[in-house]
Specification:
Rossmann fold; binds magnesium ion; 240 residues; six-stranded mixed sheet; four-stranded antiparallel sheet; binds adenosine-5'-diphosphate; alpha/beta
């Protein structure tokens, strides 16, 4: 695919609140290429989740554009947008939203089933991906038979299995201890790079940005800083 994986152009999202309208996202523009892993950081309330929901086509911006593989989300029918979300976007949120009555393997296969291409090869790939995430012995476990960290890794496998262009993760390590969190983000980063996905991770834990190629900092709905040099990113991760 030659088009840019993701392009965000001057996006604004306004919510009505008791104290009047507020711009949760206030004129944000950026691009993410295939094979790039970007961290979106910033204080609570700075608009990160709102931004990610817009990228996932779960929320419509008040103005501005989002293009995935060069296609403008606003300039397509709702039917087409639903299909694009299913095929080209993978996401995982802080609460992992696994389906409680499906096993780990079935939760991952579910994305392929939705896209109408769950075949033998797809089942193999689901299992390989789960094994890669350290869950080879958990394939047949239900979510409530797994730890929070294991569930989070199943959710990551589910976000990647259907070969999406864009992979979005909102605080995927929030419920994990430090060592697990590092492990999850490191594997996530490796899978993004190996498979040429465009990855965006929202995290409040700056130590995690060491696995990212670029860091975008938000404040009050705006992008206030961008780091793309490895030394600067490592310094931020170390709290320097
Ligand atoms: N559905 C909504 N209705 C009204 N205000 C909202 C809504 N969603 C988010 N906000 C507000 O938008 C701002 C950004 O929120 P959010 O995107 O959740 O930030 P973050 O993920 O960085 O913590 C906050 O002030 C929040 O209260
Ligand atoms: Mg949030």
């Amino acid at each position: 695919m030659s088009a840019l994986a993701l392009e965000v152009r001057d996006v604004i999202k306004t919510f009505e609140s008791d104290s009047g309208p507020i711009n949760a996202v206030d004129g944000v523009s950026f691009r993410v290429d295939h094979g790039e892993f970007v961290a979106l950081v910033g204080p609570s309330g700075s608009g990160k989740t709102t931004m990610l929901s817009i990228l996932a086509a779960l929320l419509t911006p008040s103005s501005g554009q989002v293009l995935i593989d060069g296609q403008d989300l606003a300039r397509m029918s709702e039917t087409r947008r639903v299909a694009l979300r299913r095929e080209k976007i993978g996401f995982t949120f802080q609460s992992n939203n696994l389906i409680p009555f499906l096993t780990a393997a079935e939760n991952v296969e579910f994305m392929l089933r939705l896209n109408g291409n769950l075949d033998k090869a797809g089942k193999m790939r689901s299992r390989e991906l789960l094994a890669r995430l350290g869950l080879a012995d958990r394939l047949n476990n239900l979510p409530n038979q797994m730890s929070g960290g294991q569930q989070q890794r199943v959710a990551i496998a589910r976000a990647l299995i259907h070969a999406p262009t864009v992979v979005l993760a909102d605080e995927p390590t929030a419920s994990l201890d430090t060592e697990r969190a590092f492990q999850v983000v490191r594997t996530f980063s490796a899978l993004i790079h190996e498979n040429n996905r465009a990855g965006i991770i929202v995290t409040h834990d700056l130590r995690m940005v060491q696995y990212c190629d670029r860091v975008l900092q938000m404040r009050d709905g705006k992008l206030v800083k961008e780091l793309s040099g490895k030394p600067e990113i490592l310094a931020l991760a170390k709290g320097e």
